[in-house]
Amino acid sequence: MTTTRASTILIVDDNPGNLQVLSSMLQQAGHKVRPALSGEIALRSIEASPPDLILLDIRMPGLDGYQTCERLKADPRCRDIPVIFISALTDTDDKLAAFQAGGVDYVTKPFQTEEVLARVKAHLQLHLLQQSLEGLVEDRTGELRSAVAALEASRRQYRCMLGQTIHAMALTIEKRDPYTAGHQLRVSQVATTIAGKLGWAAERQEGLRLGAMIHDIGKIYLPAEILSRPGRLSNTEFELIKTHSEVGRAIVSEVDFPWPVAEMIHQHHERLDGSGYPRGLMDDAIILEARILAVADVVEAMAAHRPYRPALGIDVALAEIRAGAGKLYDADIVEACLALFEIDGYQLPAVASG
């Protein structure tokens, strides 16, 4: 996606030298730049004319970066403006605080020109895409609701648009995390095939397919450096990762899906014995769609490569769900999944290249 006008970027830093360096860098890349030497000045500037993106330092006199971002996000008129923190603070707790305040990314000083420009470009494009998707869902839903009950053609058009929107949302997430590119699509295909083996009606399978395609949509607000980092995550980082199911539910909660998509997203890490997250649900409190999604998600994730480990293979993945049948995972769903691979000869969809 390319923008049709120069983007306006507000740089907030109490160091004039940093402002000069960043301003020069961004102007050479074709952006319009507005500097601000404090959080207070920045908020007044944003109120007068909201920018497309904000680069925000943390340590500043008066309002620091966290407070400035929190005030910004509390204002409905400008809370959707993406904020990239640029700071010399390198501790994980500092980064976590930045994301909790509402930031979408974090660049550590001293920064590299290529990195800053790449992240600015990515978040500008992501913001435009998100606005486009929100507008598309809102506009199309309003236009088609009145016609769906009477016209089958309108119903098909609505479903087609909805599927295309969900597919675009799935691609948006995976563009940020190349290591798991295709994960949601493969999970969707496995889950839908399991549902078919269980005898689900086509209409319910379609809801599961679309929900599974965006089950990790909450990861859109997680830092890309954590998603793609090799090696074991810290406890703090893992707690941040675990928020993606709640964030995902919040993202789609206002969309009037004809299926329980929000709960599929919210519950796909729940386990029958209550050991899952985010709510520790047990047994029948977990909807069937989420129980199928949990099994498909585990099988795909274990069988495929991840930044923190090589692919474990389908045999290891199937052994995991077999061991957890009736305790962590729905026994009937596990049985259907095992039969799918071990009797029917089903194979995981290939990972798309490029």
Structure, explained:
56% of the residues lie in helices and 6% in strands. It has 354 residues and is an alpha/beta fold. Helix 1 links the parallel strand 1 (8-12) and strand 2. The chain is globular, with a radius of gyration of 22 Å.
Helix fraction bin? 55-70%
Report the uncertain regions.
Answer: none
Report the principal-axis shape: globular
Q: What share of the residues does DSSP label as strand, in percent?
A: 5-15%
- Quantity of strands, as a count: 5
How many H/I helical runs? 15
Strand order of the largest sheet: 2-1-3-4-5
Mean pLDDT: 86
The radius of gyration over CA amounts to 22 Å
Order of helices and strands: EHEHEHEHEHHHHHHHHHHH
Largest sheet: 5 strands, parallel
Helix and strand content put the structural class at alpha/beta
**For the terminal residues, how far apart are their CA atoms?**
17 Å
